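Example 3.2
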Amino acid sequence: MSRAETVTTAELQAELAAWYRKNRRSLPWREDPTPYHVWVSEIMLQQTRVEVVRDHYLRFIAALPDPAALAAAGEEQYLKLWEGLGYYSRVRSLHKAACRVMEVFGGRIPSGIAELRSLEGVGPYTAAAIASIAFGAETPAVDGNLLRIFARLTAYADNIRTPAAGKSAEAYYLQLMKASDQLAGGDCNQALMDLGACVCVPNARPKCAQCPFAAVCMAHLSGREEEYPREPGRKARRIEDRTVFVIQTDGRTLLHKRPARGLLAGMYELPNTAGHLAGTQAAAYVRSLGFEPVRMRGLGEAKHVFTHLEWHMTGYAVFVDEACTDTLQLPPDLLLADSAEIRDRYSIPSAFSYFTAYDNIKKPG
């Protein structure tokens, strides 16, 4: 009889606990896991790598240390603090939720799953993560990492992205979590998160030699680790060509505020338009904004990937006639900002990072 047939759930938890004690990642939100810290970090970590989140988290918490400060913050402040993390709807939801925490829960983040789910932007996974890590609840926080581990451990043959698969994974992990007291609810979830991020990795061959579950993993034992998890093919991203303009005059750069709804809603951006414009077309676009180009040069090409969309961009640096700008009345969605204002006040999405690097736009003037 193989070990896979005789090992108990308590033994599995003990193996995971030993692995976690040795390999636990040191992350700032783990060192002081208040409900607010856990909540902010979990929202930041959605679709964003830990390495990117770490510094942004520290900056955000230093500026907005509690729900009251976040609820009182203006849009420009919290968007600027979020700059570089992308998916800006997350921080708008975070702000709305902070307002609800102040208005409905007296400034205290609730501990119950139902109450947490009532907060804007908090879904089943985030609610479970907050409840378990901040409040010690025994509830699995099933995300992509945990689904992938479950699929390989059990050789789950069906689509892992269905509600049925999620329920099966949740029941499996709840049994593991309750098997003994070596790993409390939050620690068990975080151990599994680390395992999925560092060992049972996506899009590559998992590091099975380092895995505490190797002796019982059905996919590993059959040599089919890379066949799991099984999920339907993803729809190809739509590709959109755009031309981006760094329009400058008198030490200032032109910014455009996007509409309140849709992609990158309400964000400041470098002016841009659909298509790859040639020189004469590009000059005509600049004139359509009310500026007379004096000198233009190409800035090369860049690409930015959104969830369902890719921007393939080309860009121009444009110096415009200062005499014309002195009397120009800009519409409400356009403004000229100096480098200090762009650095400290106006948040520009990372989609434009290739072009904002031009001419030290974000350095002090």
